[in-house]
Specification:
Rossmann fold; 9 helices; 2 domains; 373 residues; binds magnesium ion; five-stranded antiparallel beta sheet; 20 strands; alpha+beta; six-stranded mixed beta sheet; elongated; OB fold (Dihydrolipoamide Acetyltransferase, E2P); binds adenosine-5'-diphosphate
Length: 373
């Protein structure tokens, strides 16, 4: 089995006058694992169904390898498909379920038997041949669905929230199993999930969807470190936001006056699509919890913000502090500090200096930020 490229070009899907998918384009490399990540209703399933052939695009083209498959019937596309609700045939045994695609393709009984045995071993289901789906756990049922999708050796495997029905522990072990399978087979995978952690863990690249549009496509680290919009910044990983007014850019970086009066500097300046900010504009600052630091009051340096610890939480490998900036209402900021033992360096109620890593501060226009919600 060898993976093939998938090219998605200007795909639009309308239901009446509602646009479920708006002008989405991206390429998936042969053997690549790409996740489509977005909240419920963002158009992920619709997009995947168009690649699978169960929905027809209103406009745009889809290519697998160098074949234009936009209007090809699903069974002629050579894509395997795994759904969230395993969609197994309840009256068929495990072996019969897995054999089904080969039967449809008219392979000989002996070849089917050999391929079923191989595939069952591949997904670690040997010994379960004669069981019915109802006699399997959720994880085992999903392995049957994966085996059935892989048995005809498709160059492309599509998965729509395949682990959504499983509990956390099982989900994590299945994530590694799917990755292992994909590596071993070299199959191209397009994987739909609403779980940003799952997308980051599993994918070579992640395509973030927002309201039918593609917000950003990038490697996990790229999305995490260089989100192009406040929406992506918020959706991928934990993020703190601060609102303020852009005062202009000096030698030290962009200067922002926060709502309660104090000023901060963003050294990385205006990022991503935010070239349109001008002096006096409302802006939204974003900073990750691990790029904030706490110092005893008065010891945080010239740009520190006076703040108060509202909660000190022991998590295990790190500490989390919820911190309110003096004079600022709204939700407290999350600060994440490495843990060295069980003793928390600051306590609930402590007056502290909040130190922001100026290199890590992202700047977005406030209007775009509010659109993203
Ligand atoms: P997701 O998988 O990201 O949760 P979907 O692709 O299922 O989102 O749906 C995207 C949007 O399109 C939703 O608002 C949904 O209600 C709408 N939608 C999906 N299928 C249909 C349909 N057959 N008819 C009308 N609207 C639909
Ligand atoms: Mg869906």
């Amino acid at each position: 089995m060898k993976g093939q490229t998938v090219v998605i070009r200007d795909i639009v899907k309308r239901y009446g006058n509602f646009e479920a998918v708006s002008n989405v384009s991206f390429d998936v490399q042969a053997g690549e694992f790409v996740s489509i990540l977005g909240s419920s209703g963002s158009g992920k399933t619709t997009l995947l169904m168009m690649i699978a052939g169960f929905e027809t695009p209103s406009s745009g083209r889809i290519l697998i390898g160098d074949r234009d498959i936009t209007h090809l019937a699903p069974n002629r596309r050579d894509v395997g498909m795994v759904f969230q609700k395993y969609a197994l045939f309840p009256h068929m045994t495990v072996a019969q379920n897995i054999a089904f695609p080969l039967k449809m393709r008219g392979l000989s009984r002996s070849e089917i038997a050999a391929r079923v045995a191989d595939t069952m071993a591949l997904v670690q289901l040997a010994g379960f041949e004669r069981r019915l789906p109802s006699q399997l756990s959720g994880g085992q049922q999903q392995r049957v669905a994966v085996a059935r999708a892989l048995i005809f050796e498709p160059p492309v495997l599509l998965m729509d929230e395949p682990l959504g029905a499983l509990d956390k522990k099982l989900r994590e072990s299945m994530q590694f199993e799917i990755k292992r399978l994909q590596h071993r087979l070299g199959v191209t995978v397009i994987y739909v999930t609403h779980d940003q952690e799952e997308a980051l863990i599993m994918s070579d690249r992640v395509a973030v969807m927002e309201g039918g549009r593609l917000a950003q496509v990038g490697a996990p680290a790229e999305l995490y470190l260089s989100p192009k919009t406040a929406f992506v910044a918020d959706f991928v990983g934990k993020m703190n936001f601060l609102d303020g007014d852009y005062m202009g850019t000096g030698t030290e970086g962009a200067i922002i006056a926060l709502s309660e009066g104090s000023r901060v500097i963003a050294r990385s300046g205006l990022n991503g699509s935010c070239g349109l900010i001008s002096e006096g504009d409302r802006v939204r600052l974003a900073v990750r919890p691990e790029r904030l630091r706490l110092a005893p009051k008065g010891q945080g340096g010239p740009w520190a913000l006076p703040a108060r610890v509202e909660a000190a939480i022991f998590v295990g490998s790190f500490h989390v502090f919820l911190v309110g900036i003096e004079g600022r209402g709204g939700a407290p900021l999350q600060v994440q500090l490495p843990a060295s033992g069980a003793t928390l360096p600051f306590q609930n109620g402590d007056a502290v200096d909040l130190v922001i890593d100026q290199e890590a501060l992202k700047l977005f226009p406030a209007t775009e930020a509010s659109l993203g919600r």
